[in-house]
Design a protein that fits this description.
Shape: globular
Largest sheet: 2 strands, antiparallel
Structural class: mainly alpha
Number of helices: 10
Strand order of the largest sheet: 1-2
Order of helices and strands: HEEHHHHHHHHH
Length: 267
């Protein structure tokens, strides 16, 4: 079900974009992610089933990753980047987004109003992250090497909307907000390195590795004891430490290493 974009605030006056960059000078760039499996699903075919905890928004089922990806696509394609905040997005548009999600996925808990609220919160988070990525990767380098044309083609944003978005990011008032946010982020002495899967993905990966290791040890010893029993769940303090350990084995900060050492001394 297609969702027509709501009418955003009127664009600010702006100079025309630099038309000097020719198509031949533009860099090749990968198109934005699309879920081909959903786009090509025959009419009337069963929708993927995803369970959602109404209280936490936690998803479950074999298609949960597909739903998370789709929420990011909806946030990027259905919500105008010229809105300043998620609260400014009209309620009617959010309702249409919720209808789109239900048209693509069967969510048994959809009748619970908390489920809708949690799912739309995730869409809002994905939308804010999308705007942050646009700012960091494109808006602050616009007009260089045909960046304007690249981003408009890649994400399907009109040149008028993109120009308006870039204007807000170059405004001194927004730069002040950005610096305050960066200063606040520097106060975080325990940054994590989790992917979008969060602790859920980290724990699942750890359990698979732990099970594999136990099977290998049992195979080498010729023993079959303990193979059927699943490994014990990962302890909370271990997950916390793993989430803040880089691939190199180092912690994300010295302050964090001291905290991890103190926690480890109690076990």
């Amino acid at each position: 079900m297609a969702t027509p974009p709501a009418s955003p605030p009127p664009p600010l006056p702006s100079p025309p974009l630099d038309a000097s960059a020719s198509p031949s000078t533009l860099k090749r760039t990968r198109k934005a992610t699309r879920l081909r499996s959903l786009a090509t699903r025959p009419p009337g075919a069963e929708r993927p089933v995803v369970n959602v905890d109404p209280a936490t928004g936690k998803t479950d089922g074999p298609h949960k990753k597909k739903l998370r990806t789709y929420l990011g696509i909806v946030a990027r394609d259905k919500v105008d980047v010229t809105y300043d905040t998620w609260k400014e997005v009209p309620t009617a548009q959010k309702d249409l987004i919720w209808e789109d999600i239900q048209a693509e996925f069967e969510i048994p808990e959809a009748s619970d109003s908390r489920t809708k609220k949690k799912i739309l919160q995730i869409v809002g988070e994905r939308w804010r992250q999308f705007k942050s990525d646009l700012t960091r990767k494109w808006a602050l380098t616009a007009d260089k090497d045909g960046a304007n044309d690249i981003v408009c083609e890649k994400y399907g944003i009109s040149k008028e909307k993109w120009t308006q978005f870039c204007q807000t990011r170059r405004d001194p008032s927004w730069e002040d907000v950005r610096k305050k946010a960066q200063a606040s982020q520097k106060q975080n002495t325990a940054p994590h390195v989790l992917s979008r899967g969060g602790y859920e993905y980290l724990e699942a990966k750890f359990m698979v590795e732990k099970t594999k290791k136990r099977l290998e040890e049992a195979s080498q010893s010729g023993s079959t004891e303990g193979i059927i029993d699943p490994p014990s769940p990962i302890r909370r303090h271990v997950k916390w430490k793993m989430a803040r350990t880089k691939k190199t084995g180092q912690m994300t900060s010295e302050a964090l290493k001291e905290i991890a050492d103190r926690i480890g001394s109690h076990f």
